[in-house]
Amino acid sequence: MMSQIETVQAFFARYLEHDLKGMLALFAPGARIDYVPMMMAGPVDETGRNIWSTLVDGFPDLGNRVTAIYSDDVQRTVIAEVTITGTQARDVLGIANRGQSFSLPHVFIARVDSEARIEFMRAYWDNAAFYAALAHAVS
């Protein structure tokens, strides 16, 4: 069985490969996510699938790099600092496609159950910086 840190690392490895099915397989039944800056929260099967498929569709080169990862064994909590990158290829999330790229630090907080499945994941980032990076007109 994977450790809680290995579970979260596996999530980001599958995310990097755009393996939505593999990402979802790491979550416990009934797991929930909360993408705070987007005000999108709910069951991972619906909300997570929707967010991640939208991002991969809008940013075909969507990537991530885990820059730090911490664990609290007592609370079964993992905190991951992750830089997410991508180049916009189509209109997405109400942002007109201008072919711009972004590179933005994120913080993910995940609670992992005793069977190394993610029960809950919350994500934070500077949404204003995300929109600003994509809004610059191509010269």
TrEMBL record:
InterPro entries: NTF2-like_dom_sf, SnoaL-like. One of its GO terms (molecular function) is isomerase activity. Pfam families: SnoaL_2. It comes from the Bacteria. Residues 8-113 form the SnoaL-like domain. The keyword Isomerase applies. Keywords: Isomerase. This is Ketosteroid isomerase-like protein. It comes from Cupriavidus alkaliphilus.
